[in-house]
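G., the chain you wanted modeled:
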Amino acid sequence: YDFISDIHVGGVKKKNIVAYSGVRSEVQALKALFKSAGYPLTGITAIPFAVQNCILSKMPDTGHDPVVVVNVRRHRSEIFCLSDQGVMVARNIKTGSYSLVESVLESGMVDSSVTDIPGILAARERLNDPGFEEMGVAADRLVGKIQRTGEYCSNMFLDNEAVSKYYFFGET
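Predicted structure as tokens:
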């Protein structure tokens, strides 16, 4: 765990901490790998911890304007609505980068042994290749879910203040 700060809840002083968990054998294997390379590992930052680090370090700096941070993972996407008040909404949806390229894989335009999404997208020669239209439909669905999450956050928590920016990360 990491100690963040002291907080007061109902007049009672409490500790604000972030707890981490992981499979001990995997953490020890990573430490051994880095140590053998001459760089002792003192911490591990995976995506959930990276998002937490962004929130704690106030990066991206939201100022007074709410922002949405989207992590497009392989099978799911995570959407976080942030403001100067902290995390307003965290949502996990079933649409990920594989959902975007399913139509391309089903069209046979890409060797089925290719498993990395950037490789699949790089294999596209033209925007009018078969399967591209369906990829656009899947992308529109994903963007719609992201926009609705931002609107929900704005309406429910931020007095209808519009989301000012959307940040995306992930392998796509």
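The chain has a mean pLDDT of 78.

Shout if anything looks off.
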